[in-house]
Amino acid sequence: MKKKVVLAVLFILPVVVYLFFASGVNNFGRLPILTEKVDDVSTIDSRVQLKNKITILGFLGNNVEAMQGNAFNLNQKIYKRFGEFNDFQIVMVATEGSEAKVDELKTELGKLSNVDKWHFAFGEESEITAFYNSLDTNLELDDNLSMPHVFIVDKDLSLRGRTDDEDEGIKYGFDTSSVAELNNKMVDDVKIILAEYRLALKKNNADRSK
Asked: 96 φ, ψ to 5°?
């Protein structure tokens, strides 16, 4: 009798756990779209693009040195955790003329992790402003065309975020100067969007095999 109970638990428990998480993902597993049809960064720099990638997008402007700590926080808390996922990337936008400083930043980041999925796009001030405005957020670039916040842009060029954040209501971006915000909010949201695409991929593969 005991053996039957043990076998039943071993068989049923994983199924129950799977159904619980599957239900959770189905009900809560989509990160809200806040802005559709964001411009692609390739309009500024043809070497980099957002389309068909899950992108963490940030703005260094001409303030690269001052933003170094923010980049390190993002690298340690987000990139190291999710950088191995296919189609995941970090894109930072900087002004033309700051290439040398960006190279220095990338070298420093490279001492902490593989930086193959860190990409940098360079543009003129007017181009960066126009590109940023396409995100249509409630946040503003500073006078250096930089900001501590980063954004999640999906493969279809939609800005993702929160519509019911407990602190901000609508949450467009994540403050990289706050390790707590990266740990407590951004990690969860990146997990959700990656799970969303994994589930979609599994569904497509299953449909093809029918």
From this structure: -60, 140
| Residue closest to 185 by CA, chosen among 171, 197, 203 | 171
Average pLDDT over all residues of the chain:
87
Question: Contact 149/176 with Cβ under 8 angstroms?
Answer: yes
How many helices, marked H, and strands, marked E, lie in the chain? 7, 9
DSSP string, 132-186: HHTT--S----TTS--SEEEEE-TTS-EE-EEEETTTEEE--EETT-HHHIIIII
Least confident interval from 59-63, 83-87, 133-137, 161-165 = 83-87
Q: d(Cα 172, Cα 193) in Å, to the nearest integer?
A: 15
- What is the total residue count of the chain? 210
Question: Is residue 122 classed as helix, strand or coil in its secondary structure?
Answer: strand
Regarding pTM above 0.85, the answer is no
